[in-house]
Amino acid sequence: MKHLPSTLWCSRYLRWLLLVPVFCLSMTAAPAQCCPPDIDALETTKEAYQLQGTLDSNAPLLPDANFCLPYADTLPQPEAPRHVHLIPLQVNTNDIIVVHTPMDSTTSINGSLFLSLYRGPIDQDALCQNLVAVSNLGPAENSAIRLAASLKSRETYTLLVTTTTPMTTGDYQIQVTTNQEATEVFMEDLTIVTNPDSTVDTIVSTTSFPTAPFTFSIPLNCEDDGLISSTGLQLTGDPLEQPGCSTIENLTYQEEINQFQTCGSTFVKRTFTFDGPNGATASCIQRIILRPLSSKLQQDIWLPPANVTIDCGFPNVYTDGTLPSPEETGAPFVLTVNGPYFMDGHSFCNLDAFYEDSAPTEVSETDYTFTRNWFILDWCQPQDLLTFEQRIQVGTALCPVTMSSQIVTEDEEGVANVLVEFTASGVTDTVYTDDSGNYGIPPGFEIDSTLSIRPEKDYDQQNGLSTFDMVLISKHILGVTPLSSPYQMIAADVNNSGNISILDLLQIRKLILGISSEFPNNSSWRFVNLGFVFDDPSNPWAGGDITDTQHPLWPRDFIGIKIGDIDGSADPSSLQPSGNVIVRDGTPFYLHTAARQLQAGQSYDLPIYAHNLPDIDGFQATLQASAAVELLGVKGGLIGADHFGPVRPDGAMAMSWVAPQELPDGKQPLFTLQVKAKAPTALEEALHTGATLLQPEAYGKDGRWGAVAFRFDAPVATSDIPQLGANHPNPFRESTQVDFYLPTDRPARLSVHNTIGQLLYTVELTGKAGWNTVQLDRSLPDAATGLLHYTLEVGEHRLTKRMLRLR
User: Fold this and answer.
1) What pLDDT sits at residue 402?
2) Peptide bond preceding 486: is omega within 30 degrees of 0, i.e. cis?
3) Residue 453 C-alpha from the chain's centroid
């Protein structure tokens, strides 16, 4: 709003005088014009692509019989032919574009323009066939129109420009804005090549539209109260930045939020207090209005494309009747200060969007259509339900290939999300494999001798990797158990040197310990043509390039190899490490150290022993310290310090070890753990093995896997009073053991309670002089999970400790 003279301002806003009487009294004594103006919207400036033209008598005509009006209830019916312009559009990245007319434009026919966007060329005999979106007429108070659509990279679209009134001529101006700053819009001739030694695409030929800054206003809505408070004066105005106000001092402000009714506007009232140049104190009020949204206003809700075609040009092709999600077909969205918010089944402010799908109608064996009906409910105006219809066609009828290829693992599991690059006659395009590893040839590619196919998947490096893979590689190197297939050997060649050595083990160890994040000279996955014949299966590198993709045959199937994963535990359909459950039915591997009390501020060197070290081929675990203890590091013993990862801020540290061919004397410490106590605590409560970095696993020489846990050995007791040791392992799932000391033979009772004191388990014991052990396993009820307290009662003595049972 404009600033008014002080007396007029006070009379106009008299209803606020009871709240701020000081303001109007002090206007004449201080620079109150320094107060930022009231606002209900924020202005944003973006670079817009400018499209200008003239519809004159020489422009082509679109006959009224062919004019497609998917929204006949909102647009006038054609009465005569209309002049049209057809403008090709391309974008370099998948993005949402908005085509609109400037609200302040004085161009002669902007107010009566009608826009529609098509995927590919326009068929004037079937204008609705590949229609993507049409323009929404602007609100009555302005002449702006707009069209929003989600475009796919490298696809050619056609923008049709015409008018709502037949035979109208004149100049027009259109602006195109993108959601992502990096997105570029081109007229045509977007030629892209992939560098042979890089995955970076290079645009070699474009015809760009001219650009110019475009400023538009985004209304503040009822979800923006947190934004206003968190950004302070950055978005809403700073008194120091008002003209002539740089000399004000001691600026402070208070903020009050008033919501007058459930569906009314919310007012953020900011009261500024400051000193002017003459020393007088002034105060003023800025109101920030956050209003509810309306499903009736075009500026509040943006609708998805009315017509959608999903075929082989998209990453997912649905041929099994599965309906695509709104993420792929488009969803209504609200344009906010932080960008678009898509309402695919979500609520925003007082609006709620949901949809219903019709039953699919089969067009052919591979194609079907269905209707997605959107409903946008305004909880403040529930009677005004906005409905919108999408017509969606799904299938492969437009694809030139009738068969697909597949990428699978050696165990015939489909490898998903593989980027498959096609190159032929200097043209490059890409597709992705689906969840089953299937993929097809992109449109426009011929099956000939020039066709080259290159699969690529270079992420989720840790998927399927564990110390057990290192054990298998070590046994291969030592000749104890050679790897059985050429694909396992390729997976074991982690450093891509053409052989398997101790260097491969070192790279895997660095990755799983968190010292490195990727393999320096290899990708996460490698691919071999399914028809490739190894000259020597025991030496897969002897026959040349095993990943040669220049092959004219189709279909083209590949074997996918997860580098470093020897036991095949990687999940080829996931972006994350495998969630397979490992059955640990072997003997637990205990890390022994003496139980003790730690004093705050004291540092300790804790020797850690392993009595059953000769029984295992290796182990891994996450060493986890509680908040009462700081891990300082590790001193090597039988295991060197290089078998440990860095200490994380949460007190976790990964450890991984593979047994050498000859074990040293097991009486020496396995390693020495250096800790510092930050608070008084028992060591058995401050240290345990977890799974945040590496699953606790020990690989027995008998082929069985066991858990890894700490066992805190009780010191030799000379006390004449009972003692209660820590349970081990802790935490546990199925069973745990409790140690206790008695000075003489006498009865005892062990009981288990939950955190609210309910008794869950009790057992009467016949204790012997010295240390005793009690096994708690299936005798514990199913309800005994989570944090538990176990108590030993011996005569007048009652001793309690904590344990954790996992579900």
Assistant:
1) 40
2) no
3) 29
DSSP state of 111: G
Is pLDDT larger for residue 713 or for residue 687?
687
Alpha-carbon distance 648 to 630, whole Å?
10
H-only helix segments in 96-165:
none
Token pair 């004037």: residue: 124
Q: What span, in angstroms and rounded, lies between the C-alpha atoms of 626 and 314? A: 49
- Which stretches within 298-339 are classed as H helix? 326-329
CA distance 741 to 717: 8
Cβ contact 727:748 at 8 Å: no
State the DSSP code for 221. B
CB neighbours of 175 closer than 8 A, spacing ≥ 6? Answer: 48, 49, 50, 51, 99, 100, 101, 102, 214
Helices H / strands E in the chain, number of each: 8, 50
Cα dihedral sign for 339, 344, 346, 347?
Answer: positive
Q: Which residues pair with 159 in a beta bridge?
A: 87, 117
Contact 774, 737 (CB under 8 A): yes
Tokens standing for residue 184: 């570029």
Contact 627, 678 (CB under 8 A): yes
Q: Which two tokens stand for residue 713?
A: 């050995």
Could you tell me the two tokens for 655?
A: 């450890």
* Residue 327 contacts residue 366 (beta carbons within 8 Å): no
Question: What's the CA dihedral at 487, 556, 421, 418 to 10 degrees?
Answer: -50
The total number of residues shown for the chain amounts to 807
Asked if 185 and 89 touch (Cβ cutoff 8 Å), the reply is: yes
Give how far Cα 403 sits from Cα of 366, 406, 439, 443, Å: 12, 10, 9, 13
CA–CA separation, 392 and 182 (whole Å):
29
pLDDT tens for residues 61-101?
Answer: 765 534 444 443 444 445 567 788 888 888 877 777 888 77
Type and span of the H or E element at 376: strand 368-378
Q: What is the pLDDT of residue 488?
A: 93
3-class SS of residue 24: helix
**Burial class of residue 522 (count of CB atoms within 10 Å of its CB; 0-12, 13-18, 19+):** buried
C-beta of residue 111 within 8 angstroms of C-beta of residue 171: no
The type of residue at 342 is: F
Largest CA distance in the chain: 113
Apex 286 CA angle, 282 and 288, nearest 5: 165
CA 637 to CA 674: how far, in whole Å?
13
Give the position of tokens 């009467």: 764
**Rounded (to 5) percent helix, strand, coil in the chain:** 10, 40, 50
Sign, CA torsion 508/531/199/184: negative
Q: Note whether 485 and 476 are within 8 A (CB).
A: no
Q: Are 442 and 422 in contact (CB under 8 A)?
A: yes
Please state, in angstroms and rounded to a whole number, the distance separating the CA atoms of residues 586 and 705.
5
The one-letter amino acid code at 31 reads: P
pLDDT score at 577 = 38
Task: Locate 259 and state its tokens.
Answer: 């919501």
pTM of the model: 0.44
